[in-house]
Amino acid sequence: MLKMTHINRVYRTELVETHALREFSLEVESGEFVAVTGPSGSGKTTFLNIAGLLEEPTSGSYLLEDHDVSRLSDNQRAKIRNEKIGFIFQSFNLIPDLNIFDNVDVPLRYRGFNASERAKRIEEALDVVGLTSRVKHLPSQLSGGQQQRVAIARAMAGKPSFILADEPTGNLDSLMARQVIEILEGINAKGTTIIMVTHDPELARRAHRTVHVLDGQVANPEAHYSSLPAAVDASNNAA
Amino acid sequence: MTIRPILSALLRNRTGAILVVGQIALTLAIVVNAVFIIQQRLEHIGRPTGMDVNNIVSTRVQGFGDDYDHLATVREDLAMLKSLPGVVSAVASNAIPLSGSGSATGWRDSDGEDPKSASGNYYNVSAEVMETFGFSLYAGRTFTPEEIDSRVVADTPGNYLPKLVMITKELAIELFETPDVVGRMLFDGLGEGTQIIGVIDRMMGSWVGWENVGNVALLPSVSDRPWTRYAIRVEPGKADAMVPVIEKALEDRNITRVVTSTETMESMAKSSYDADKAVAVVLTIVVFLLFIVAGLGIVGLASFTVNQRTKQIGTRRAIGARKRDIITYFMTENWLLTTIGVAIGSILAVALNLWLADAYGLERLNYWYVPAAVAALWILGLVAVAGPARRASKISPAIATRTV
Amino acid sequence: MFGYYLRLGIKSISRHPALSFLMMLAVGLGIGVSMTLFSLHYTMSADPIPEKSDQLFAVTLDAWDPEDSYRGNTQGLPPWELTYRDATALLESDIPTRQIAMHKSYFTLNMDASEIKPFMVTTRQTTKDFFEMFNVPFLYGSAWDSATDESLEQVVVLSKATNEKVFGGVDSVGKTIRLNTHDFRVLGVLDTWEPKIKYYDVNNGAIDESEDLFMPFALSAALELPFGGNTNCWKQEEIVGHQGMLNSECIFIQYWAELTSAQQKSEYQAFIDSYANEQKKLGRFERPINNRLDDVVSWIEINEVVPSDLTIMVGLAFLFMAVCLFNAVGLLLARFLAKSPVIALRRAVGASKRAIFSQHLVEVGLIGLGGGLIGIVLAVFGLMGLSTLIEDIDHVARFSWSLGAIAIGLSLGATLLAGLYPTWRICRVQPSSQLKTQ
């Protein structure tokens, strides 16, 4: 479903050259729930950017559902992000001017669905996260947990191939965090692949598999459906 | 504070800088040219007329009946008008100075070969011309009632010339190169001569936009063509009140004629200058709005830069910059932009003026307008940036340690 | 998607009413000032008779002073009017479809045994084609015919306003009015006819109203009517009485010809040139041959009906608008850059650059629209202000639907153009910038 092979990503400024990812390879199967962990500066964010087609790799190949997506135009990447990828961010990133309904509507608009199709999908998505009664509310009128559930609805409404979650519980207290992770598990159980970047070892443990990134490479390439190694705990605490 | 780091910061935020510089440059170019035009118009409107414009009422009568005797009517009208309470004096004239309507002709200094010539308005007037218009005599004398030439048009050539004339100093100097011309002869285009008996200090003719408006000749004559205008000098401050009184007094004489266009000379002069005044007013408004818009533009962009650099400013404060240093920084930055703007603007201003002079015959700029406008924009820039700079200086040094 | 962008634009504007209003005000001030002056310019230079302006020609002949050209040597134009003798000679030609010789005069209109106080009227003495040539509408009756042009019959056509003043607006055809000491029979009454520019006689008050009444040209000589407009003479000649004026080299007659084809025009040009050449043999027309046929639009132009002051002010006003637009660009840039996070998010969830570009251009367009509306309001007040500053320009200092459309178009166009840069800048926001923890 997602296959990255020998991905390199180099950032250049006038003075410095930073290798954010080096020879990074990773394969994710359809239906998996993968946690990506690693200390700050390890290359997690760069991985997420490239996996989410927000950035292009400097070299290497990236196959998404058997199509090479490593060398696409800006437009083509936008189209794939819209149709195949759902994003969930640490700070929710809802549009403050728009109400809940319109926020979930955003990716569907760019998809070009007609009004009734959009309404149906928004309804369904909000139903999954239990917020159908709040469609007219603005994000500022909701709690953080509710906002993140709206963001999940927005990510799901387009029925993507996989969801990329960036520290989805990072800005939430533990109760709200649990609700959010349960919803994600529910979605995954219905077949949607989830790739989640997190610092939280407890959260990582709930994934099927944990990929640990260190210095721009996968530190545990052999890990499959295993529990988190002790070494990673240590590095997380350090971060 | 050194300018180098400010300059390099500006170069990195080029767009904002270009917007400020562009606004300042255009503003300067417009303001310089607009103020120059305004100044010219005000000078034009403010020229001395040589007459007591504020206390004169004018009117026009037109006879139409078979039994209408124009020459007798004029005589009686003038006597009646002079007897009205509030009236100082009255004169019959074919036209009223400053009104936009009148006649002009070319005058010559001799009837010989290759004469000098000058054109100017002329007025066919009755004897009371001097006390009515209120001009002052430079030399010589005015007409006596006996000298007024009353003719029947049908018997005389179209452009007949009375034997005596009074002229303005300006016309005298243009033709004879001296104002002392009493006793000399003035000639018309046909070579007919008339003797100059008086020279008027100053009197403006009919068309205020005409370059020869100061060249005036007064001819002592009343024709029997069935119409004339009267100028009536009234007691000071009574002009407006006397308009209906005069109109009614003339109408009440019940002659087969129409009395029209009774109005104060002041209002006639005012409408002659309408266009000049409109130009001055419109351009004043434009200049005023420009200063507001350009000022707000500087405030807006300075606020934007301050917002963008909140953290940087906090850091500067944290490492020891005083509030004064922050204010100086922004003032200097803005002063630099204004200076670049006015430098470009000065060139634009002069170029615009040259182009206007070339395409529309506008006069060349007095170049001191440029430094005056530069100074004004410098002040505007400093005043406009003061607010945002003060706000920047109030940014807490604690911002530096926050992660936002 | 346009509807969606429109909704987003309105939302964005209403979320930041103060800043949005400031931007609209900046644009609106620029539009308001420039449209105030442009409207006046536009109305004064507009084609007053577009349906046939290219077939109507002002005829001018250069019979002026051999020593000195008429309007100064720079322009090389012949005088704007003709002598009486040249005008009557040209009337003999049968080349033009229609042609008129005319001048302005005035009378005292006095009715016997009437409540109406005698009053002055302006008149136009013209040959009969005037009305058909300039598409002058009739309310009652009609113009005179060519026989009347010859017969010296005292007939008159009244303007609608004069008919209202004298006859209370009823059909007055056949009634009599008294002008000075002459009785005239009313032949026709005009309907409302208000050309904004008095293009058929621009040199005697280009924005004056048309005359109060019209009568056959031949009556001018027969009744020795005074010449009410500009009269200019150059020659040192004895002029005795009215007949003297008619025989003189003084100019006071306006002359127009209607020429419907290029061939007809060149035939007529040849005719007036050969007339001038014949006159040369008689010792007149001592200047080089310089006879012109100018159509309505170029006639308005060469006679500088639009004062150059106004043109200069229009130019300065457009420069002022440029300053306002600079301002609006600065504000837009600040506003859009502040929106970067939201735009990055839209990009992340799949908006193409094009979609972001369109969305923000629509928002810019809304600001332009708002600015245009503010500008129209300001221009309407501005024109009212100008009317109070300058007498008798009410009819040209007037806002119209087409000027409104121009204002909106100008505002939209200028704002969109100015908004291109901020919009382009905002499209370049990296979608990945959302992922960086905030």
Word description of this protein:
The complex is a heterotrimer of chains A (239), B (404) and C (438). Chain A has eight helices and ten strands. Chain A is α/β, with parallel strands linked by helices. In chain A, the strands form two sheets. Chain A has a six-stranded mixed beta sheet with strand order 6-7-8-3-9-10, sandwiched between helices. In chain A, strand 7, helix 6 and strand 8 (193-197) form a beta-alpha-beta unit. Chain B has 404 residues and is of the alpha+beta class. Chain B has two domains: 4-46 and 274-401, no CATH class; 69-255, no CATH class. Chain B is 49% helix and 19% strand. The longest helix of chain B has 38 residues, at 323-360. Chain B is elongated and about 105 Å long. Chain C has 438 residues and is α+β, with helices and mostly antiparallel strands. In chain C, strands 1, 2, 3, 4, 5, 6, 7, 8, 9, 10 and 11 form an eleven-stranded mixed beta sheet that branches. The relative contact order of chain C is 0.19. The mean pLDDT of chain C is 88. The chains are: A alpha/beta (239), B alpha+beta (404), C alpha+beta (438). At the B-C interface, helix 2, strand 12 and helix 8 of B face helix 2, helix 8 and helix 11 of C.
**Structural category of chain B:** alpha+beta
Residues in helix, % of chain C: 40-55%
In one word, what is the shape of chain C?
A: elongated
The proportion of residues in beta strands of chain B is: 15-25%
Helical stretch tally of chain C: 14
Mean pLDDT of chain B: 88
Radius of gyration of chain B: 32 Å
- Secondary structure: helix percent of chain B: 40-55%
Domain count of chain C: 2
Order of helices and strands of chain B: HHEHEEEHEEEHEEEEHEHHHHH
Span between N and C termini of chain C? 31 Å
Q: Secondary-structure map with pairings?
A:
The complex is a heterotrimer of chains A (239), B (404) and C (438).
Chain A: E1 2-12, E2 17-28, E3 33-37, H1 44-51, E4 59-64, E5 67-68, H2 74-84, E6 85-88, H3 100-111, H4 115-128, H5 144-157, E7 162-166, H6 174-189, E8 193-197, H7 201-205, E9 209-214, E10 217-218, H8 230-238
Parallel strand pairs in A: 3-8, 3-9, 6-7, 7-8
Antiparallel strand pairs in A: 1-2, 1-4, 4-5, 9-10
Chain B: H1 4-12, H2 14-45, E1 56-63, H3 70-83, E2 87-93, E3 103-108, E4 117-125, H4 129-133, E5 137-140, E6 149-151, E7 164-168, H5 169-176, E8 185-187, E9 193-200, E10 216-223, E11 227-234, H6 239-251, E12 257-264, H7 265-272, H8 274-308, H9 310-318, H10 323-360, H11 369-393
Parallel strand pairs in B: 4-10, 6-10, 7-9
Antiparallel strand pairs in B: 1-11, 1-12, 2-11, 3-4, 5-9, 7-10, 8-9
Helix pairs in contact in B: 2-8, 2-10, 2-11, 8-11, 10-11
Chain C: H1 2-15, H2 17-45, E1 56-60, E2 82-83, H3 84-90, E3 98-109, E4 119-126, H4 130-133, E5 138-141, H5 146-151, E6 155-158, H6 160-167, E7 176-179, E8 182-190, E9 213-216, H7 218-222, H8 241-247, E10 251-258, H9 262-281, E11 292-295, H10 296-302, H11 308-338, H12 340-348, H13 353-389, H14 401-427
